[in-house]
Amino acid sequence: MSLESLRRRPDVEGPGLSASDAADRLILDESAAARSAAREGGLVVVGDTHGALTLAAADAGARGIRVHQDALTGERALAANAGMLGLEGSFSSLPLHRALVERAQVVLLRLPRSLEALDDIAALVAAHASPDVVVFAGGRLKHMTHAMNDVLRAHFGGLDVTHARQKSRVLVAREPRAGHDPAPRRVSHDGLVVCAYGGAFAGAAIDIGTRFLLEHLPARVPDGDPLVDFACGTGVVAATLARRHPGHRVYATDQSASAVASALATADANGVADRVTIERADLLERLGDASVSFVALNPPFHSGATLTDAIATRMFADAGRVLRSGGELWTVWNSALLYRPALERLVGPTRQIARNPKFTVTASVRR
Asked: Which residues form the Methyltransferase small domain (predicted)?
């Protein structure tokens, strides 16, 4: 099977964005012998961006592969690539829970950027995998740090480091110990409790863009429709909207599994879970056309490690789709990205609400 045949869809595609890389190939090469010796159902894959690890293993004969991908677009890209290759029945997608790793013999892991995310994964594997499990954790050298070794050593008695190849490296962990199920970290910010699992953007902190948006959200919001927190992350905006507007319901969505789990915990910790609905979805696919009147958005501007405006423009277009005529999209964005023309084109007339040396908050009115 050629990894070059894989596609990223429905994730963004374009120059500099590929569905596999040298780290995938090195993980597959280093794990080949261990994978061939594993029983059916003994292989687990975590963090497979678009299916390269899972489908190459399936093409080599593995079956019953258990897979966890934080991004919903990654899950859907894996499914689409599997369909293209006729490998649909070779794997199942599962949450980052015990059933994912129970009695696993081999784990293939794309190293996450966050040490907290790596700790959650390593602790779960150490708690529930087979005593003889071997973890092949790889990534690009520019995204790897020595602290990753320390995290793995906290949960495994043995750690080997492979030679680098094509600017990639694999850490091989054995002898699991000190495992536990992941739990959200909790931090209070001026009375707002933020809960975060390891993979959630910004962790239990409130990133500076979100802080700036919170400072400038409108005091009055439309009655009737739910208020929408688009790309909700840990649920900071959703919980704040629910606290500020006790007569309103809030709908929050994110494609990240760790973000959704974190947002659910944040809503519960702040006593607003009964009025906040949080779903894992790509964009606002669960909402109908012209169905809401207020959307708040702090859009991401990276796909993996690649800077791109394609994610934000997709979000602007979908926000425009779900807004009623006269409804508003309130957005915070890095001022250097110059999103205002796209907001004008995809949503409607856009006014600046606030600006500081780094960020701009705008409100766009649906035509």
From this structure: 193-362
What pLDDT, in 10s, does the model give residues 29-57? 999 999 999 999 999 999 999 999 999 99
Angle at 232 between CA 226 and CA 237, to 5 degrees: 70
Question: CATH for 3-176, among 3.40.350.10, 3.30.70.890, 3.10.20.310, 3.40.50.150?
Answer: 3.40.50.150
> Is residue 174 classed as helix, strand or coil in its secondary structure?
strand
Q: Are the C-beta atoms of residues 52 and 24 closer than 8 Å to each other? A: yes
**pLDDT per position as a tens digit, 249-294:** 999 999 999 999 999 999 999 999 999 999 999 999 999 999 999 9
Task: Indicate the helix (H) or strand (E) that contains 106.
Answer: strand 106-110
Q: Are 176 and 147 in contact (CB under 8 A)?
A: no
**Taking the CA atoms of the chain, what radius of gyration do you get in angstroms?**
21
Identify the residue whose tokens are 């990894």: 3
